[in-house]
Amino acid sequence: MAKQETPETRTALVRRARKIYRILAQTYPDAHCELDFQSPYQLLVATVIAAQTTDVAVNKITPELFARYPTPTDLAAANPDDLERIIHSLGFFRAKTRSLLGLANALVERYHGEVPGKLTDLVTLPGVGRKTANVVLGNAFGIPGITVDTHFGRLSRRFGWTEATDPEEVEKEVGDLFPRKDWTFLSHLLIWHGRRVCFARKPACWDCSVATLCPSYGTGPTLPPEPTKPRAARKATPAAAATS
Hints:
Layout: H1 10-27, H2 40-49, H3 55-68, H4 72-76, H5 80-87, H6 93-111, H7 119-122, H8 130-140, H9 150-158, H10 167-175, H11 183-196, H12 238-243
Helix pairs in contact: 2-8, 5-6, 9-11
């Protein structure tokens, strides 16, 4: 009969989780929000339109977007067709246009054109859920928050910090393992690691700085891929040489 592993105690889980945090912080000391922004308004808009696309794609179109609509008041008065043209490359542009117009109008009508700095207020805005709200609070207002995107959820489960799939439950269970002051940077660390190493389909376990602390080690390859050999030059046949 196989020996049953001793379940990890709560104290051991907290210690392991915080050690993973420290190692990832050394691995990615410059981890940060990869959306370009200069104000809470810009970050809020960029995060809303970043749904189901990449930060790189969003950063390509936001200079034109914010030059054309520098304030919520300007955005609220935007022509939908013009707005759709600017964000068309991001996908779901019609739905995102509706969200942006609704968001801008709500900011103007309810908050005098200012982005509120409270979670309870932010989540009432069109297109804004807890994930978006925590991005804005943590990065534009300096208020700690956990951003449970697909990377954060995936890594939290692989690390054995939670078994939950509901984002709010993940946020609560993981948040309980760390001091509140670390929440925003923790979010950046897991997102960066998820984008660079701990991929969804084939994590690069061989290149993981926290491999020895991860119960999911071996989900992906544990050895680096073989270097690609250059294809040998084909020798010309006499027939080919004759026709060249």
